[in-house]
């Protein structure tokens, strides 16, 4: 592999007049980049050393060739389309150069940052789009996509490789830029964006990147986007659930933790969230539960008190808490240092890496905001509410002293009320139920399990449509489908924003590959709950089988209204050319 990187410098040299075909360049340069970005320090060091040894042939002259080629390719009028392949090879070469040795304050000469920003924007608007299989012919003969339950998945660098290499280039140029405004090139005392340019730059480019983070990109591009944003003080992975949780930070009603600072200040927090997202801030759970550290505060509520070390800066701690609760925090240039120190101490790896301007390593994961750890057995201890399903099944609970034998989940009020107005009102109402430790949720176990996942991760768990689904019996498929109908129905009463839509799309996609028996049962079940959109989806999925289902007597369960819907849909289906079958 290391020899390969030497060969690559050869490739780069020969390709400086761009004579080599993209078929040769892409795989060779990709191999080199994988080594330059290797999580293994030795490989990474050797690769960049060998590469920089070979680079003097090329030197700054080559860099200028690349940059002017990129510039002329991106500044042409919108009407003519981009030469995407040329942009791609230029970007890959550029990435090799900037990764093998630092180029400080490049923007003094040309403005590569503007050029790369334009390319990235065009990629995000899909005007430039190249997939690996378009470039390298050998991939056409290889296996692509997914094979049943064995999912080969997407490459880490994502579908659009131009986007990825553009981001790598931009991150590295920005990272080695210091004390110059990237917009107006003015010299600065701190940071890389002057006061005058900040607003415009934020609205223009940074917002585009932030929006891209909520798109479905793969880990590679997402990591680089997050790391680029962090250079401008926007650190973390913003998410909808994280946004909701930000109000938990100021919610003192349910706070059961006081962090005491050496200057006498105290900050309220929630053990459930801290222990799931930033456990290093707390003494060990055993020690916390076993000791008398739980004391009554002045209102008679019992809280844990934890004394912080006197080296902990209170502003930095507030930033760390914000990140812990929401997964995202803005860190200004003036406060980077103490926040970075504390993030490292707290083992908040993604945040610490961003604040240290570290290079994302090939194949490392982009961490989403997620609270599901809080449901794990140890953290159960901080649970203050039990959600019990409507079910006669038995379930053994692994939570120490718990005696409940029906299916249930040990949950946390703080998390529940952020996504559910009904529960928020219930807990505040002072009604008999609001003091109970157990809430009976009008859902079967399947549905409750999915709902809890939604509360803690912000997404309904999806069922993969592969042989595992196809091998389920009709009954098992039906119970999955019915769970979505139950959720959709509960969403109306509990004001669960987005659950109705997510359930519908999940059920619709499953219906396409469900057995007709499961689908017919589901139609009856959903109609019973008044979930008509689901009924329609179910009817659409089996309508083409109508005559066969009718003759086999499977439709006896359905009432006249549903049969009518089915007949109408069948007629529509036959008239649109499906009748020949
Ligand atoms: Zn191959
Ligand atoms: Zn399979
Ligand atoms: Zn400026
Ligand atoms: Zn239990």
TrEMBL record:
Alphabetical list of PROSITE patterns matching this protein: BTB
Domain BTB positions: 255-333, 383-464
CDD domains reported for this sequence: BTB_POZ_ZBTB_KLHL-like
UniProt pathway: Protein modification; protein ubiquitination
Gene3D superfamilies membership: Potassium Channel Kv1.1, Chain A
PANTHER family for this protein: BTB DOMAIN-CONTAINING PROTEIN, OS06G0674800 PROTEIN
Protein name, per record: BTB domain-containing protein
